[in-house]
UniProtKB/TrEMBL annotation:
Keyword field contains Transferase: yes
Annotated pathway: Carbohydrate metabolism; tricarboxylic acid cycle; isocitrate from oxaloacetate: step 1/2
InterPro entries hit by this protein: Citrate_synth-like_lrg_a-sub, Citrate_synth-like_sm_a-sub, Citrate_synthase, Citrate_synthase_AS, Citrate_synthase_bac-typ, Citrate_synthase_sf, Citrate_synthase_typ-I
Family matches, as Gene3D superfamilies: 2.20.28.60, Citrate Synthase, domain 1, Cytochrome P450-Terp, domain 2
Protein name, entry field: Citrate synthase
Organism taxonomic ancestry: Bacteria, Pseudomonadati, Bacteroidota, Cytophagia, Cytophagales
Length: 392
């Protein structure tokens, strides 16, 4: 026990064995349970992928309809939970509201306290999948000062989300299939990414046998940071700044190259594991072009993003450090085209990542992983004598 290997940021530390997601950072490969991300994004529905991640196999028709029906039946959120929303300031960031309310869910299902109620895990999984979109859209409605929309269970998962998000009492709202399909692809691409920061957080919290809601809520908090899921919001804000600045990308490239002194990083660039390209970014870049043209949206920010990418990919600083656009670089441009406001981008990531967090939490419990507890190398004072306050 006296010997500790230091690995800051766990760059080379494998924390677990896992059968969920395969990732090869050199070759740019990402697979969920053996299925390529390209195949799934093109052919599957988000809930099929959720089932695959959580239960290990693609569902049969019968399994899928049981799963989907259960989710439909649990979309409503307890009215007492709705009251909690009223206590938040209108300007509260939806990610803070989301993590608080997911944490609050544990109070509504108290059989979970202290690791009890494991037999209820499937029910809790369904509740999380069903209620996260409701909570997410309510936090958005609250930020607008609008009445919330209740879920409509005749709608599929994504149309239901869109309806709760955009429907107004004064105006009919019809779901555009182009929007629903684009969202389906984005959610699938975000659904899991092995032992990333938020997933490791979910596992670490869950390893103390904390309940699933507390564990997932911690994952949402970890995702919020700008170096992780929060990067998608930062990217758009950065692109808007460049636009307001006259569109000159070179100034931002220079700032990023001097990240050590400027503290500025090119958001949406670089990845801990991908050192060649991020396969998700490749699909999203193409989708951004498709979706914007199908929706007839002309967003000048897309051109700025492409210019920024090109400038970076031709710059020695980025090339030598193997910094490529990641999943967050183009996703915000699609969200914007779909009408999703910037402060909801990371919430969208959370909705997408939820099945992955659940799958990893479940695997961790089933494998009976020990409590996570890293060691340290102590660098503080050696033993010294206590002096009473009047002598200090
Ligand atoms: N802009 C400028 N320089 C960068 C960037 C960037 N975006 N990313 C890394 N670097 C530099 C870094 O300064 C370091 O330089 P040097 O070798 O001179 O010290 C080198 O590249 C290696 O970077 P690192 O910070 O040691 O790499 P990491 O694996 O610890 O960090 C990262 C990975 C994703 C946190 C980082 O690339 C980053 O901060 N990117 C911007 C934020 C971002 O887009 N995050 C989303 C990640 S993908 C989706 C997700 O997880 O949510």
């Amino acid at each position: 026990t006296g010997y500790v290997t230091l690995d800051r940021g766990y760059k080379n530390t494998g924390a677990t064995k896992s059968a969920i997601t395969f990732l090869d950072g050199e070759l740019g490969i990402l697979q969920y349970r053996g299925y390529s991300i390209e195949d799934l994004a093109a052919k599957a529905s988000f809930l099929e992928v959720a089932y695959l991640l959580i239960y290990g196999e693609l569902p049969t028709q019968e399994e899928f309809s049981t799963f989907e029906t259960a989710i439909r039946r649990h979309t409503l959120v307890n009215e007492d939970m709705r009251k909690i929303f009223d206590g938040f300031p209108v300007k509260a960031h939806p990610m803070g509201v989301l993590s608080s309310l997911v944490s609050a869910m544990s109070a509504f299902y108290p059989d979970l306290e202290s690791g009890k109620g494991e037999d209820q895990t499937d029910a809790h999984i369904i509740r999380l999948l069903a209620k996260l979109p409701t909570i997410a859209t309510w936090s958005y409605k609250r930020s607008l000062g609008h009445p919330v929309n209740y879920p409509k269970n005749n709608l599929d998962y994504i149309p239901n989300f869109l309806n709760m998000m955009f429907s107004l009492p004064v105006e009919d709202y019809t779901v555009d299939p182009v929007v629903a399909e684009a969202l389906n692809v984005l959610l699938i691409l975000h659904a899991d990414h092995e032992q990333n920061c938020s997933t490791s957080t979910v596992r670490l919290v869950g390893s103390s046998q904390a309940n699933i809601y507390s564990s997932i809520s911690s994952g949402i908090s970890a995702l919020w940071g700008p170096l992780h899921g929060g990067a998608n919001q930062e990217v758009i804000e950065m692109l808007e700044d460049i636009k307001a600045d006259g569109g000159d990308v070179s100034k931002y490239i220079d700032m990023a190259k001097n990240a050590k002194t400027t503290g500025f990083r090119l958001f949406g660039f670089g990845h801990r594991v991908y050192k060649n390209f991020d396969p998700r970014a490749k699909i999203i870049k193409k989708a951004a072009d498709d979706v914007l043209s199908k929706l007839g949206v002309n967003d000048p920010i897309l051109e700025i993003a492409k210019g920024l990418e090109e400038a970076a990919l031709n710059d020695e600083y980025f090339v030598s450090r193997k910094l490529y656009p990641n999943v967050d670089f183009y996703s915000g441009i699609i969200y914007r085209a779909l009408g999703i406001p910037t402060n909801m981008f990371t919430v969208m990531f959370a909705i997408g990542r939820l099945p992955g967090w659940i799958a990893q939490w479940k695997e961790m419990r089933e494998q009976k992983e020990p409590i996570g507890r890293p060691r340290q190398i102590y660098t503080g004072a050696t033993l010294r004598e206590f002096k009473s306050i009047d002598k200090r």
